Amino acid sequence: MKGINDMTKDNKVAKLNFKRATKDEKKALLNYGIFNETIKEYDKQNKLIKPTHIELFKRLKTNLIILNNMDNGYEGFAQYIRRNLQRFDVSKFKEENPKLYTQYLVPMETNEIKVKYNLIGSTINE
Predict the structure, then answer these.
(1) E strand or H helix at 76
(2) pLDDT tens digits along 49-97
(3) Cα–Cα distance between 21 and 4 in angstroms, integer?
(4) What's the pTM value of the predicted model, to 2 decimals?
(5) What's the CA gap between 45 and 52, in Å, rounded?
């Protein structure tokens, strides 16, 4: 069984004081981590499924499908919306104008909560 001490040693994480958070706060952080992993997994699945649905709209030569008569208690519509956009190519600009790029960089702070977890008796979730 891999415990929290093994997890921190394996990942070279500095020892922290784990005693300050309450049981409920720890559970909330774990739920936050599980929730984020679920979102990532759904996002991966969505990217795999989306082309199939786009192909349906193209095959039917429509941009609107009415969702009714499905015998499941739901109704509504699905709409295929295609947008042509332009975006600023930061990588190319940085490569071609490094001094100008650097001139417009501004300091910023970001926040991240990284949660690693495992079921007791299993391997660590990454």
Answers:
(1) strand 76-79
(2) 999 999 999 999 999 999 999 999 999 999 999 999 999 999 999 999 9
(3) 15
(4) 0.63
(5) 12
Amino acid at 61: K
Cα distance between residue 25 and residue 113, in whole Å: 14
**Residue type, position 29, single letter:** L
Rg (CA), the chain: 23
Tokens of 89: 């190519």
Domain boundaries, the chain: 4-103
Query: CA 119, 43, 92 angle in degrees (round to 5)?
Result: 120
Which tens digits make up the pLDDT trace of 12-57?
A: 555 665 568 899 999 999 999 999 999 999 999 999 999 999 999 9
Count, residues in the chain? 126
* Distance in angstroms (rounded) separating the CA atoms of residues 89 and 79: 29
Per DSSP, the three-state class of 92 is: helix
